């Protein structure tokens, strides 16, 4: 079984986001970038399938600038076998990402496509769903457990108020939720080995996909600054402040 995993380069989740002074975008100057955490979870799942002997090959793909090869190398160090880089410096919106991934799916014919449920930079939560629509493959989104059973997949999804289990026939697309697994750290020897693993570089033009944006980013704003808190001396003082200053109780 071949597994294709889509990974995205995003701002490291530990970084405090800065907005550009003209509010045109987030400031990425000298900012640490990393693999989107949900994509790391998807890679971990694919590698575990390989370790169990269920998957025979794990291929990772990203769409992004040259620097996104760092995240592909990380995925290779975590256990993926080879990588595909669709190189572009443009901001590629979800529909175009899904069209490019659909072309890669057509070329690679994977039995299983894994994505994160969302990218933490744009929070779109739609690429997996768009890819399922374009390819006509079955989809299981926000998966918290996935079991491969022959030609079918049991996907448990976290939905409002409980869990839902779906049975999908392969080939299928699954997007990973946070509780699916805890990704491993790459070890130094694996990081060294990853440098020699194959990486195929292509462009959106090579795949025949036009990536011109239909959505423009109008404005980015930081959340309002929170005022510092105070310490109260007693419960009576707290109740008094809640009643008379914050006016949240009567
Ligand atoms: P989104 O729909 O943008 O929130 O992203 C959901 C998932 O789609 C991510 O976790 C990735 O698996 C995949 N994805 C989104 N953008 C890209 C990209 N530029 N390259 C590769 N995969 C992507």
* CATH class division: Alpha Beta
CATH superfamily (homologous) name: HUPs
Return the string of H and E elements: EEEHEHEHEHEEEEHEH
Radius of gyration: 21 Å
Mean pLDDT: 95
Give the strand line-up of the largest sheet.
Answer: 9-8-7-10-6-1-4-5-11
**Count of separate structural domains:** 1
**End-to-end gap:** 63 Å
Q: What would CATH call the architecture?
A: 3-Layer(aba) Sandwich
Secondary-structure blueprint:
Elements: E1 2-6, E2 9-11, E3 33-35, H1 37-51, E4 57-64, H2 69-78, E5 82-87, H3 94-108, E6 112-116, H4 127-135, E7 138-149, E8 152-159, E9 162-169, E10 172-176, H5 188-194, E11 199-202, H6 235-244
Parallel strand pairs: 1-4, 1-6, 4-5, 5-11, 6-10, 7-10
Antiparallel strand pairs: 2-3, 7-8, 8-9
